[in-house]
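Hi support team,

I've been running sequence recovery on a batch of backbones for a student project. Most finish fine, but this one hangs at about 90% for roughly twenty minutes before it completes. I'm not sure whether the input is malformed or the queue is just slow. I've pasted the structure tokens below so you can try to reproduce it. Let me know if you need the job ID as well.

Thanks,
M.K.
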């Protein structure tokens, strides 16, 4: 179907990047979360390549960032009450929320101070789609350490 020129900014959902949020059970009925970026299936291939893990969140950082995670689940039509250590199936996320969650997971992974975790979670949640894609590209395409340091300084104060 050919689209008229005024649809040039329209995003076709079939061409958007897919992300998966997986629950990883830990000890004493607790769990962690892992975020994966799914690869595109290339022409001629029977299966698409394995998904790439972008980050893991567990413990105190997960507890402090739970409101941001609940918002992502709601935005993808999931009930946040289904987020338990028993869940086996991954949550399938759209590109916009997956990118935001990837930035959040990667920025929060090494942090321990609750005030910094809360500030960064709030700052990532307030990012525009373009700003989130900018930081996602910086972090995942060769400038990981310096980009994450800059992001933590920018949002952590």
């Amino acid at each position: 179907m050919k689209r008229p020129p005024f649809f040039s900014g329209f995003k076709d959902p079939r061409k958007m990047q897919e992300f998966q949020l997986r629950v990883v059970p830990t000890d004493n009925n607790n769990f962690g979360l892992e975020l994966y970026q799914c690869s595109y299936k290339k022409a001629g291939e029977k299966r698409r390549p394995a998904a790439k893990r972008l980050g893991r969140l567990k413990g105190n950082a997960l507890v402090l960032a739970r409101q941001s995670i609940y918002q992502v689940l709601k935005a993808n039509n999931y009930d946040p009450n289904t987020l338990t250590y028993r869940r086996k199936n991954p949550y399938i996320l759209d590109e916009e929320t997956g990118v935001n969650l990837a930035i959040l997971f990667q920025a929060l992974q090494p942090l321990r101070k609750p005030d910094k975790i809360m500030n960064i979670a709030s700052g990532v949640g307030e990012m525009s789609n373009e700003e989130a894609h900018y930081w996602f590209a910086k972090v995942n395409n060769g400038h990981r350490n310096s980009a994450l340091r800059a992001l933590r300084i920018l949002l952590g104060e």
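--
Follow-up from support: It reproduced on our side and the slowdown came from queue contention, not your input. The CA atoms of residues 21 and 91 lie 5 Å apart. No action needed from you.
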